[in-house]
Amino acid sequence: MAAAASSLVRCAAAAASRRLLLARAFASGGGETDKRVLVPVAAGTEPIEAAATADVLNRAGARVTVATTDPVRDEGLVVEAAYGVKLVADGRIADLAGEAFDLIALPGGMPGSVNLRDCIVLEKMVKNHAENGGLYGAICAAPAVTLAYWGMLKGLKATCYPSFMEKFTAEVIPVNSRVVVDRNAVTSQGPGTAIEFALSLVEQLYGKEKMEEVAGPLYVRPQHGAEYTIEELNSVEWKCGGTPKVLVPVANGSEEMETLNLIDVLRRAGANVIVASVEDKLQIVTRRHKFNLIADVMLDEATKMQFDLIVMPGGLPGAQKFSSTKELVDLLKKQAESNKPYGAICASPAHVLEPHGLLKGKKATAFPPMSHLLTDQSACEHRVVVDGNLITSRAPGTATEFALAIVEKLFGREKAVSIAKELVFM
Exactly one of 11, 119, 140, 160 is catalytic; which is it? Predict the structure, then answer.
């Protein structure tokens, strides 16, 4: 009995400590105009939607907290998101019940949306937030499975993942649109509309001018929902012996939207994606939100494997770490010398491939403010460029096209278009 009481005291103390740390995090840094944003996540959450929401709002200046609805477990704050992605949340919803936010935005995914729905603390938080006139949103399955189930879309126009539209309750006015704003509710359709959803939230919080300021460096698609295109030169078949095995290196400072698009989209297509940390531990901290991601293996282990493709996300600090990691550079050089596919997006073409001679004789693109670093800049205006066994792309706003182009080269156009439609990208 004494041991049990002691355990309860320790648990209570730990919970109080977590609440204090989170409260201090809210109180520190930033000015009076900072907006507080809550992005709840759970087992099965769609990682692209969570990352895009957190990343884009962080770019706008919001203080974003990613909090898990999962109960306390031995794994701590690790969240098993969809497609084998392991995220590390900032805290737990249970410890934030008394906190005030300017926005609560729910990512989708299944069973992630169900797990959000079944969190009583979160339901109460969102309802109280809405009753006080707060802005709230949801994407993919979450508008129908979570918000509508809670009765929070009554009399409102809303959208969701197309196959879940029939799950809206009778009180909801369904609209087949990529993003719908009605009063304080913002809803959207899926991973392929996640950046649009996040930018709409920025506009609701900060205004159109701030939204446009944030959208600029993302290089979002000029025409949403359109079929994606690839600039391809010197076309060759990317040959794989069975299931394609893909290495995605990650580092502290890697761009989260680019990283998670690669992992999510390629795993959807059926590729065997190995995420390898080039740091001294599996957990890495990404570029914008300081999203915590857990890699599958350390790079040392990956160097013992053979890959059909090696492809790097961007983010300047991450790209610089890649460039200074001899083991990774050696892997890339061996891949190129073997005429096997390799690629990079955003900062990585300019800061990894170019300085190590991996763009020699090739056409490539890169993050526009860094494209001057490429010796050959003739293809830099394109969003995705394939030159033989090399593939490059520009920015977070081209990340889905980049991943789909890889799917097309590995699995064929029909498969890539199928995935694009599944994402509600086109």
Answer: 140
